[in-house]
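Is fe (ii) ion placement plausible here? Inputs below.
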Amino acid sequence: MKPNIGITDKNLKESCNLLNNCLADAHILYFKLRKYHWNLKGDNFMELHKVFEKQYEILQNAIDEIAERVSQLGGVAIGTTSEFAKNSSLKEQPGKNPENNLDMVKELLEDHETIIKNLRQGVDDADEKFSDQGTADFLTGLMESHEKMAWILRRYFK
Ligand SMILES: [Fe+2]
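Reply from A.M.:
I modeled the complex. Tokens:
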């Protein structure tokens, strides 16, 4: 049964597309955080190992909430690695790792910042174009969580 919650079918579909793109971004960053958690070496190994772990745990929870919101709005959450790669604005580097630990931090920081910019646009679109205040509020919370994670990574640089 379709949700009867004061949002047109067209706008529900638009919100679901937006959320699926956020889901794809969250997955790609989740994979990258895990990959770098495994491949750190040298200075700051254990500290960054823990920092990356904390962040992928936060993303793991966010991923479930994003996917379930798609379902709540009558859509179908994407769930394959090929769809995540296709729908995400983040880039992976198969077979390669950044030269050193701080380069990993920098790349992850830039990915958070890309997601923050996408989410900021998403908040405006959900509210102004799709009349979906719930999704706008949800994405605002998600954006704040990425702003905090980005801040933690940014503090490694002067
Ligand atoms: Fe681990």
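Short version: The chain has one domain: 9-154.
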